[in-house]
Amino acid sequence: MTVLATPTELARLEALARYAIVEGVPEASFTRVAELAAQFFRAPVALLNFVTSDRTWSKACVGVDLLAVDRQLSFCARTIEQDGVLVSPDLSQDSRFLNHPVVRGEGGYRFYAGAPLRTPDGFNIGTLCVLDYVPRAEVTALEREALANLAALAVEGLELRRAQLEAEREAVARQQLVEGLRRTTTYAETLAAISALSDLNLEPGELVGTAVQLVAQVSQLDWAGVGVLRGGTLEVDTVWSAPDLPPSLLAPLMRQTAAGEGLVWQVVDSEAPRFVEDYPAWPGARADLVRAGLQGAVMASLGTFQDTQYLLAAVRRMPQLWSRADRDLYQVATRTVAGALLRQERERRLAHEATRDPLTGLGNRRALEAALLTLPAPAGVAMVDLDGFKQVNDREGHPRGDVLLRLFAGAFAAELPDDALLYRLGGDEFVVLYPQAGDLEGLQADVLQHLDGAVATARAAGFQEVGASFGVALWSAGAPDPQAALALADQHMYEDKRRRATFRKRAG
């Protein structure tokens, strides 16, 4: 079924077309986002879809093999009609979907949650959705926010993909403009090699250094370096130099300079490379570099990863104009490197969010399972249950319960030693890993001390009836492996909880 082409729908389809994303097979970068959504919701099916005038195209499929369906049969066609997350806890009881062919009958879908993929200019071009074969309770605001955030990350990936496509188109156009010139083939091969670097899973510093070295080897330079700007401190490393580069020039190039002085500082806040053809006459020229014979220079920002910005500086000793081909080479190369760093940062952030508890910021169960695989012996494991949490939820509401969890988690983490690792499993359960733990009695005393401080903080904040039960175990002393130690600590924690309950009952 083709939707009526209203002006709004035509504008939406035009926005979708800019990404050149429909049709074709699913793509790995979007599949990772869908996998995160499925893992977060513990859902068997997750899809990342784009909605055209008559079909819905899947670019990521988890738990189902699907390429395209008629728009009339797509849940997502409804999701793009609204700004927020669309949730149907039980599709078979939802008048909008109960007669849908994939809902009717045994084995059909029962739960659906979808967030629109909203472009920066405000068009919903698709959805990120999760489905289950059993109905669920209402989705929480936190879960809605998580799904919307993952959808926003997918749109960031689309924007990056679009920018990369535009860069590739520009590179092709520039290559055609300089076709016939001696260096065209060499430059094109260099740009292709730089583009391929992003698929090699290199560390950011290695990616940047290799890209600059590739450019330097083909563009008639005497020296090229990478500036690493972190925390207001700039360090410059040589990545390529001509065999006959005199020490009188190398020394001032490597000299530490004050903020704002020298070559690379000129492009810290600039997206475009800066080309200098007559360095001695340039207003920002340094006297020591002029005396050393520097004639031409190019400076460019290579992008940022986490808190580190990478910068390029390259120089020539011979008076020579930067040709159109030279300028195109540096402009496309720097954009390609910056795009690769942006993708690495996005993937790092996705991986980090997949192992974090969104409420407390602690590691989640997935992070704990990974830590247990590499936990060295001997080590201690403590299982902690926050007593009184459910009563706070029932009496004062879930928002107040969330405040308690965040407060307790922060206070408990502050009490722990630097090498201890704290995780939230969900609800009111926490786990602490103590590397290099000693004896069991000492570990019990340490945990009790840490918990007393955290509970005291919670009570001082108005949660007077809160307490904590815990159990501990040692790996290599009573447990054959970390997982067994965790199970043993869990058993001891429930024994402690029962003792506390019995004591309170008798005291009452």
Written account of the structure:
Helix content is 44%, strand content 21%. The chain has 508 residues and is α+β, with helices and mostly antiparallel strands. The protein folds into three domains: 7-164, Beta-Lactamase (2-Layer Sandwich), CATH 3.30.450.40; 200-352, GAF domain (Beta-Lactamase); 365-507, Reverse transcriptase/Diguanylate cyclase domain (Alpha-Beta Plaits). The strands form three sheets. It has a six-stranded antiparallel sheet with strand order 3-2-1-6-5-4. Helix 4 runs antiparallel to helix 9 and helix 11 runs antiparallel to helix 12 (398-415). The longest helix has 37 residues, at 141-177. The N and C termini lie far apart (69 Å). Residues 377-508 form the GGDEF domain. This is GGDEF domain-containing protein. Residues 148-175 form a coiled coil. It holds the Pfam family GGDEF.
Q: Name the CATH class of the largest domain.
A: Alpha Beta
The coarse overall form would be: flat
Q: In what order do the strands lie side by side in the largest sheet?
A: 3-2-1-6-5-4
Strand fraction equals 15-25%
Number of strands: 15
Structural class, from helix and strand content? alpha+beta
The CATH architecture of the largest domain can be given as: 2-Layer Sandwich
In DSSP terms, counting alpha (H) and pi (I) runs of 4 or more, how many helices? 14
How are helices and strands ordered from N to C? HHEEEHEEEHHHEEHEHEEHHEHHEEHEH
Helix content: 40-55%
The count of domains is: 3
- Determine the mean pLDDT: 85
List unreliable stretches of 5+ residues: none
Radius of gyration: 29 Å
CATH superfamily of the largest domain: GAF domain
Keywords: Coiled coil
Pfam family, one: GGDEF
Domain GGDEF: 377-508
Protein name: GGDEF domain-containing protein
